[in-house]
Amino acid sequence: MFSMATVSRLAVAALFFFLLAAEAASAPVTGSKHGIERYSRIFGFGNSLTDTGNSDIYPLTAGGVSTRPPYGQTYFGHPSGRASDGRIIIDFLVEKLKVPQPLPYLAGKTAADFVNGVNFAISGATVLEPEFLRSKGLMVFVPVSLINETNWFKHVVRLLSPSVHEQRKIMANSFFFVGEMGINDYYAALLSNRTIDQTASLVPHVVGTIRKAITAMVTSGARTVMVTGMPPLGCAPYLLAQFPGAPSDYDPVSGCNTRLNGLAERHNRALKVALLKLMATYRFRAFIYADVYSPIVNVATSPTKYGFGKTPLAACCGGGGGKYNFNFTMFCGVRGSTTCTDPSKSVYWDGIHFTEAANRFIASAVLGRFQ
Ligand SMILES: *[C@@H]1O[C@H](CO)[C@@H](O)[C@H](O)[C@H]1NC(C)=O
Ligand SMILES: *[C@@H]1O[C@H](CO)[C@@H](O)[C@H](O)[C@H]1NC(C)=O
Ligand SMILES: *[C@@H]1O[C@H](CO)[C@@H](O)[C@H](O)[C@H]1NC(C)=O
Predict the structure, then answer these.
(1) Which residues approach ligand 2 with their CB closer than 6 A?
(2) Residues 282, 216: contact at Cβ < 8 Å?
């Protein structure tokens, strides 16, 4: 549970974001801290950056690389359903909020299974529906979207109590964490040979759908929703390796691709405006924007200042060498891949997902002021 100091700092942080956002958009809305309560459980949404076991159970993805060593080697000592060498952001959040570890949705059935929180996040999930992506000629990897996750959530709400009053009470003292989503939609577009500008035309659809999902949470009684922004796409080894840009596209200090980062920034701006609109519509709720973009850009720019090694854009686990050490034929966990000696010095674990060290760094940047 939160201490009072934590509660008031969280309120201040929420208000602070609100003020920043209000200033940015000059919207005449008012914030409130009345939505800050003690939390009994967490509900998580997202993709592989937030998945703690669903993709291991979902038949289409079961047995994927993250079910094999060296995934989980740093913290759990064995693969744990997480796409990392250890804990991911939601794990640090669970620790900070002192709530139980949420059950992966696909691992449960009954109200008793779900009463201590649920993680709906599943690897490969897009925001947009597979039908929509296909209709645009885009490829679909895993046919699960944020809309599926929202429907799973609604199912859990009904399971937890037949009484709407009781449901709303349960949701009011739950913490809602929407992990980063949208990256798989943009990746699908890039892999389908769309330019970065064409890919950016998806931003309003992606953010609009995230906003609808948050609205579903709030109308079920949610009062505190943390929404994660997009990390810097142009610093991710898998995107750097697969979508080379012109020499002028790279930041001279970090080596990140500024055009891919521009796509992430565009998403984040739209997301912040969407949160602002939600704040205006649903007063007395807390909407917290979790900025994962700045911490990763900071680390990519000055890795040693933050305790990381000198090659922040190289995958720790994988193969292929070069600046990014990323090649799908030697993906982490596949025969022929190798693991760096000290993953805590790496930002990217397998070239797509973060190391536990980077997840901890992001989590403390996002949650640090709630201490
Ligand atoms: C996701 O939603 C679509 C559309 O409603 C549905 O056809 C599909 O079966 C759902 N998938 C899962 C895994 O629930
Ligand atoms: C994208 O372009 C590459 C190279 O021209 C081609 O091999 C690939 O099939 C294209 N992919 C799609 C999905 O159109
Ligand atoms: C990845 O590895 C394969 C097999 O070794 C090689 O043929 C291919 O050129 C590599 N791709 C890149 C982008 O380096």
Answers:
(1) 139, 192-193
(2) no
* pLDDT tens, residue by residue, 281-327: 999 999 999 999 999 999 999 999 999 999 999 999 999 999 999 99
DSSP 61: T
Return the closest-CA partner of residue 121 out of 175, 206, 55: 55
Residue with tokens 């005449």: 28
Widest pairwise Cα distance in the chain: 60
Ligand 3: list residues with CB < 6 Å.
320, 327, 329
Residue 238, C-beta contacts closer than 8 angstroms, at least 6 positions apart: 315, 324, 326, 351, 352
Instruction: Give the count of alpha carbons within 13 A of 368, CB side only.
Output: 10
Name the nearest CA neighbour of 36 among 227, 285, 222, 281: 285
Comparing 338 with 18, which gets the higher pLDDT?
A: 338
Phi and psi dihedrals of 284, rounded to 5?
Answer: 60, 25
Banded model confidence at residue 17, pLDDT cuts 50, 70, 90: very low
129 CA to middle of ligand 1, Å? 9
Helix H, strand E, coil C: the string for 246-281 is CHHHECCCCCCEHHHHHHHHHHHHHHHHHHHHHHHH
What stretches of 161-233 show up as alpha helix (H) in DSSP? 164-172, 183-191, 196-200, 203-219
Q: What is the pLDDT of residue 369?
A: 59
| Amino acid in the structure at residue 300 | A
